[in-house]
Design a protein that fits this description.
The chain is mainly α and 324 residues long. The chain contains 16 helices and 2 strands. The chain has a domain at 254-310: Arc Repressor Mutant, subunit A, CATH 1.10.10. Strands 1-2 form a two-stranded antiparallel ribbon. Helix 3 (51-60) runs antiparallel to helix 9. The chain binds a DNA duplex (11 and 11 nucleotides) through residues 57-69, 100-106, 109, 136-142, 145, 157, 159-162, 178-179, 204, 207, 210-211, 215-218, 245-250, 253-256, 258-259, 262, 293, 297.
Length: 324
DNA sequence: GAAGCGTGGTC
DNA sequence: TGACCAAGCTT
């Protein structure tokens, strides 16, 4: 198959063979034009949204679909419009308000991050990637996402969507390989438009392309703006060649038991006895193991009378929480 | 680098 | 229907 001659006069002139391959496959202008017409209207993308609001959205979106984040983000922004507001509340309330978003350690770390923003950065979410990465629960992706989307920093933002788009469009492979984020960031850096604000939009546009069109299971290639240049398409859309990813089971794991135990503690404002947790899971040994891990993670605290509460719960009628 | 960490939707 | 998947982080 021969790709058609390029009609766009704006194509950048590559200076090396490597750049030629990258630029040829993923032209920023085409992705930007597509994004202008296809982007979802998500509230954290609105102009004037605070860096804190962007940061909360990014943490909530870690491994969690947009449709489930939307109502939680709205509620969090109404209740805790600033890092100081969250820091002034208890970690237990953060975990409780996290509801069933999943990975509740994110709520605890977000609360800890808010406290550090207050103590280390005068209550202002920092704009430097290095400072952002120093906060609990903020890793390589989230730090760059906040820097780019809240502060218009010209920095490559690579998530699972971008990784998959690069794997297909640039490398001609069906899936992204494991642990290639650093290499993908280097590739994206070559592609970023020179103007920082435009670079940030390009990043979110590639993410959106991966989320809406270049999806994992069933990509909608006819709707793709870069289909004519996609290396995977030009190679005939070969199936994934490597080893199959280990699928993560959930039923019967400690993970499930932790979730059930936490659900009990989240639903009540009263301290809970070990007997009240018996009903959450029949296997006592596994229940105790899960409970221990929750205590170790700091998600659950134990009162001096032996009962359990969400960590950091403010219980003025109860004995002080024991330090683990 | 692999494993652990929630929850629910999809095909 | 069960395997896969969803804007990762930490150890």
């Amino acid at each position: 198959m021969i790709s058609p001659p390029l009609a766009t006069p704006t194509r950048q002139v590559p200076t090396t063979a490597t750049q030629y391959a990258d630029i040829g496959a993923l032209q920023p202008q085409r992705v930007l034009d597509w994004y202008a017409g296809a982007a979802r209207d998500l509230p954290w993308r609105h102009s004037g949204v605070s860096a804190w609001a962007v940061m909360v959205s990014e943490v909530m979106l870690q491994q969690t679909p947009v449709v489930r984040v939307l109502p939680m983000w709205t509620a969090w922004m109404a209740r805790w419009p600033s890092p100081a507001a969250l820091a002034d509340d208890s970690p237990a309330e953060a975990v409780r308000a996290w509801g069933k978003l999943g990975y509740p350690r994110r709520a605890m770390r977000l609360h800890a991050a808010a406290q550090q923003v207050v103590t280390r950065f005068a209550g202002n979410v920092p704009s430097a990637v290095e400072d952002l990465e120093s906060l609990p629960g903020i890793g390589a992706y989230t730090a760059r996402a906040v820097a780019a989307f809240a502060f218009s920093a010209r920095t490559p933002v690579v998530d699972t969507n971008v990784g998959r788009v690069l794997a297909r469009a640039v490398h001609g492979r069906a899936q992204a390989g494991p642990s290639v984020a650093a290499a993908d960031r280097a590739k994206m850096e070559l592609l970023l438009p020179a103007e920082p604000a435009r670079a940030a939009v390009f990043s979110v546009a590639v993410m959106e392309l991966g989320a809406l069109v270049c999806t994992a299971a069933a990509p909608d290639c006819p709707a793709c703006p870069i289909r004519p240049d996609c290396a995977w398409q030009l190679a005939g859309a070969p199936a994934h060649a490597g080893p199959r990813r280990r699928s993560q089971r959930f039923e019967g794991t400690d993970r499930q038991v932790r979730g059930l135990l936490l659900d009990v503690l989240r639903t009540t404002s009263e301290p809970v006895s070990i007997g009240d947790l018996d009903g959450a899971w029949a296997d006592g040994a596994q229940r105790n193991r899960a409970l221990d891990s929750l205590l170790l993670d700091g998600l659950v605290g134990q009162l001096t009378d032996g009962r359990f509460v969400l960590a950091g719960e403010r219980t003025d009628t109860s004995p002080a929480i024991m330090e683990l």
